Structure prediction request, 370 residues.
Amino acid sequence: MHGPSNMAQASAPGKCILFGEHAVVYGQPAVAIALDQRITVNINLSKDWRIDGMRFNSSKHPHINAILQRIWENGPPLSIKITGNIPPASGLGSSAALSVATSAALRCARGRQMDGDRWQEGFSASKLNNVYSGPWENKSGSRIIHGTKSVDNDECAILAHAAEAEAQGGKASPLDSSTCSHGGCIVLKGQIDKKLNWLYQRSLHGVDWEVHSVTPNMDNDVWLVIGATGVHAPTSRQVAKLAKLLEDNPDRMAEIETIGIIAKRGLDALLSGDVYAVGRAMSENHLILRNLGLSCPELETLISAAAPTSLGVKLTGAGGGGCMIALTKNPKATSEAIELAGGRTMISQFGSAGLSIENSEDCPLWNVSE
Ligand code: PMV
Prediction:
């Protein structure tokens, strides 16, 4: 039978939001960047379903379950191992990275049915119709490609988006899933921006996002230092809190629009390579988020500690806990200051690689045409 070497392995990066969180929910632009911190998923053929050595319980792993349903239905049992250094539930994209890496490892392991150059199965922005709702039929094709060449970033991003939406009760923007799949820097906008590299449109429940990638023109000597408060604040609660504030005070929508203006300015600064302007835009973005009640004392403590050695500092993600980020030329000093103030730190380059296939030698693991 199959020995332990029958495996596929893929990894994907975490992400942080540089500009535009919360405002993106109201149609404003947002910019996210892939981090050096990653999640790796390794799959082996197994006599029964396992995850990290334990029996696989699908309700405890909703993201993995959502992806298995879409591309591994009726496939042979697997032992899935997850490793990595992205802290969970802290706004750094751990569930999107897990979903992207799982999608890549599974696709690598089953390969793809092809008819000439045309996909006979699979998901992509141009086949948006069924990834969110099914049915997920498998057509048989004349030929199977497998391993790295069968894996597609758009497909892994869309599967991860569907998994996130399913796990979060139908609500998820494609910012995390696209950043964790493509890597680098991803920009979400309400309309296509011809100055950027447009990738695709995503639509969910009547909301449309235009997803772009950009290459920041940043020096190698700037770093992101991430400070984790250790306080858990669910994204849904923070989003609901802002929605209530805006409902009670419709004039405060002006602040959401200002975040959009700052995000555009920050993006221009990224493209022109003005690190000081990027940092200023980050700090300004934070002041508005704070004014909207989206920060918390723990975040403010870490942000004040990091500010003297940073070009810009802000909360990242939903706020109310979770993480802050600092843009700095002196990551050691900034990291020490955050740690002294009680935060746990991680250091990342400015933008990291997207999904990567780390082992595909034995693929396909599942001969779909059997
Ligand atoms: O904390 P995170 O990474 O889940 O970020 C949430 C970002 C929000 O803008 C607050 C919500 C969203 O769906 O975009």
